[in-house]
Amino acid sequence: MDAPTGSTRVDPLFFRRTMGRFPTGVTVVTTRDATGRPWGMTANSFTSVSLAPPLISLCIDRKAGSFSAFSQCSTFGVSVLGENQQDLAVRFATPLDDKFGGVAKVEERPGAILLSGAAAAFVCTVHTRVDLGDHVMLIGAVEECSLGRSAPLGYCDGSFFSLSGGETPLEDDRPGRQILVGWLVEHEAKILLSRDTATGEWRLPVGPLQGGSTMSDALRSTSHVLMGQVIEPEFLYSAIDISESETCHVYRARPGVLPRQTADLRLFAEEDMPWRELSHSSMESILRRYFEERVSDRFGIYLNLGAAGRIAQIEHEVPWADHAGNYERSAS
Ligand SMILES: Cc1cc2nc3c(=O)[nH]c(=O)nc-3n(C[C@H](O)[C@H](O)[C@H](O)COP(=O)(O)O)c2cc1C
To answer: The Flavin reductase like domain covers which part of the protein (predicted)?
Structure first.
């Protein structure tokens, strides 16, 4: 594409559509007016401006119903919505009389109303307001910020999207390692194992990650190659080194329809597990822990990477689990 020349020829609607190609997160920015009435709107113009001092910016449309409140406030709050909060994104993008009715929230300082369960949150005081075209840029000095546990909601091309199923789950900074995908497929308390016909050993279905336009696509293709049908992954359960050069990322799945069982692809209950014929000690650890944890339906991620060969529980929650109001706080 040629470098842009002059802006007057740019159709505003087309400009908006073109900008929509730039993926963003989604925030709800809130404040109170002089009468104490709360105001809030969905905004994806949120961006960081400066690290020291910590500054962020948002652009508020002059036509927005809450414009007057944001043009006079001294404090405001920004909640970065979690992937399960699409309903709030829509609600706060709709001109309603009572946007906050029934919405779980906390208010750290008057005007900085934060929505519970958000992926991240900021309490800001107004640093500067800049008149820019049909918007006003609100620059906020960050007084406090906090991290939630939810994955953030994304927005691109006018649609919301979720990141948690579509990202490489764990990064491996060791060059030259091949990432394999393993499947912990559960059905009625049984786990699907596949047998290596050459050695007779059993293991979770494991194979190289297939191609795909997104990580979710690649995972689905991999499941098809390994088990003859597409299986939707639920979450990453474990990452283990299974050889000198291969690391396996294991996903838990509970498909409605099971892959066709054969002599070499079978479901095993805990008591029938071929423990002594498992291909790798990490497979045994994963399976033993899984059977333990599924009783409470609370899972951690297990890592067994590198020379130490240690299996460590790093988080006793479902990855990306949404926990209303639970923030990991980092005040500036
Ligand atoms: C994903 C998304 C992002 C938005 N981002 C902004 C924004 O950054 N600034 C803005 O003024 N409006 C933005 N809007 C539109 C406002 O949310 C919308 O106009 C809303 O009705 C404003 O609420 P109000 O009229 O009650 O103030 C966005 C809407 C959506 C769906």
So the answer is: 19-162
Considering only CA atoms, which residue is closest to atom 6 of ligand 1? 43
**pLDDT by residue (tens digit) across 254-273?**
888 889 999 999 999 999 99
Pocket lining: 267 vs ligand 1, CB cutoff 6 Å = no
Tokens representing 172 are 């491996």
Phi-psi region of 277 (alpha: psi -120 to 50; beta: other; left: phi over 0): alpha
77-92 pLDDT, tens digit each: 999 999 888 889 888 9
Q: Ligand 1: which of 32, 41, 97 to mutate, most ligand atoms within 8 Å of CB?
A: 41
Q: Which atom of ligand 1 has the smallest separation from the CA of 135?
A: 11
SS3 184: strand
Superfamily the domain 178-313 falls into? Nucleoside Triphosphate Pyrophosphohydrolase (3.90.79.10)
321, 252, 299, 317: which is closest to 83 by C-alpha?
321
Is the domain 12-162 a CATH 2.60.120.10 member?
A: no
| Confidence label for 204 from pLDDT (cuts 50, 70 and 90) | very high
Task: Please report the atom of ligand 1 found closest to the CA of residue 63.
Answer: 25
Assess whether the C-beta atom of 93 lies below 6 angstroms from ligand 1.
yes
Q: Which residue has the tokens 């750290």?
A: 108
d(CA 96, CA 92): 8
Is the CB of 60 inside a 6 Å radius of any atom of ligand 1? yes
What local confidence, expressed as pLDDT, does residue 332 receive? 36
